[in-house]
Design goal:
Elements lengths: L1 E7 L6 H8 L5 E6 L6 H7 L3 E4 L6 H9 L6 E4 L4 E2 L5 H9 L5 E12 L2 E14 L3 E3 L5 E3 L4 E10 L8 H14 L4 H13 L3 H14 L8 H14 L3 H10 L8 H18 L5 H16 L12 H13 L3 H13 L3 H10 L1
Helix pairs in contact: 5-6, 6-7, 7-8, 8-9, 8-10, 10-11, 11-12, 12-13, 13-14
InterPro entries: Glyco_trans_2-like (IPR001173), Nucleotide-diphossugar_trans (IPR029044), TPR-like_helical_dom_sf (IPR011990)
Enzyme class: transferase
GO molecular function: glycosyltransferase activity
């Protein structure tokens, strides 16, 4: 038996979509409401959920653990209301839960967000399918405990709750509380840095990202690469070229593995060339974008969707256009357009 366990509050915009996408995959739906004032509870009941109530105490783990107290399945699927399965994964979920080995299933989560006026998508993996008996810890960005082996399930969720929505109003105070309790927690420092960057509070973003990076020296957690890329991009925004160069040099091993790192290097070098009028790095800019595409062809994983395909191709085309290489610019606009990237298609149509 598989139980879906959720915590919700004022999710009438998303909840029906989420529950309907999971209905065929689970045998029981547990919804814990933390104080909704809209139709959230009604929608949950309409979808056959058992609804419980929990007084919100600024602690996501506490609320999630309360939901886990009410499940009766041997396996638990945890979703947020603003997530949904884009297709029927019921067979895959049931096959995964047939294995008796104690393990947690990692689900790919594709999140849509807005950055610099452009719609972007990122990929993350979270342990959200696991045997009953596990719990969560952490006031926010809660993690599964006890630690158990994780396996990529092949399941995929779409997530759009952060798109054109400012959740920093909720998240930042909780992260600050979490850091009062654990000031040297690298993960909380990293998450707070991300929230401040999203709020365009770049000085605070840099402060917490630098602290996270310092705390992580000698270790390589799953979020380590994302933290390095975020810090490099923050240095680029602040025009802190010396710090960016030092970070890039210290983490140069990622050049052969990560299209996100290569893409950020290219963006930094472009800003550096413009800001310092030092054009000796021009070849490195071109090579960094080309490396993104090479890694993409080799199947390297992305954090931000497109950095190894259409975003790299489009930025390379812009680079070639700015340096007067119209033939190669058109070639890479066409490559970006072949992935369905609308901005590239518009550029091609404008030149015809």
């Amino acid at each position: 038996m598989i139980s879906l366990a959720m915590i919700v509050r004022n999710e009438e915009k998303y909840l029906d979509r989420c529950l309907k996408s999971a209905a065929l995959s689970v045998d029981e739906i547990i919804v814990v409401d933390t104080g909704s004032t809209d139709r959230t509870v009604e929608i949950a009941l309409e979808n056959g959920a058992k609804v419980f109530h929990f007084e919100w105490i600024d602690d996501f783990a506490a609320a999630r653990n309360y939901s886990l107290e009410h499940v009766s399945g041997d396996w638990v699927l945890v979703l947020d209301a603003d997530q949904y399965f884009p297709e029927d994964f019921s067979v895959a979920i049931k096959e995964f839960t047939k294995v008796k080995t104690k393990r947690a299933g990692l689900i790919e989560i594709i999140s849509r967000y807005e950055q610099n006026g452009q719609t972007m998508q990122s990929i993350d993996y979270m342990a959200r399918l696991f045997p009953r008996g596990a719990k969560f810890e952490g006031r926010i960005h809660e993690q599964l405990t006890p630690l158990m082996p994780t396996v990529i399930t092949g399941l995929r969720l779409l997530h759009d709750g952060y798109f054109q929505t400012d959740k920093g109003v909720r998240n930042i105070p909780l992260l600050l509380k979490a850091l009062e309790e654990k000031p040297d927690d690298a993960y909380f420092n990293f998450q707070l840095g991300k929230q401040y960057r999203g709020a365009e509070e770049f000085e605070l973003a840099q402060q917490y990202m630098e602290k996270a990076y310092e705390l992580l020296q000698g270790s390589n957690p799953p979020y380590g690469l994302e933290m390095i890329v975020e810090l490099l991009e923050i240095y680029t925004i602040h025009k802190e070229y010396e710090k960016a160069l030092e970070l890039a040099g210290n983490e140069s091993g990622w050049l052969e593995k990560s299209p996100d790192f290569c893409f950020s290097i290219a963006q930094f070098l472009l800003e550096y060339a413009i800001g310092t009028q030092d054009f000796s790095v021009i070849d490195n800019i071109e090579n960094s974008y080309l490396k993104c595409l090479e890694l993409g062809r080799a199947g390297a994983k992305e954090i931000v969707i497109g950095v190894s395909t259409y975003l790299a191709a489009y930025n390379l085309a812009v680079f070639y256009e700015s340096t007067g290489n119209e033939a190669q610019a058109k070639e890479y606009y066409a490559l970006a357009a072949s992935y369905g990237y609308e901005q590239a298609q518009n550029k091609l149509e404008a030149t015809i």
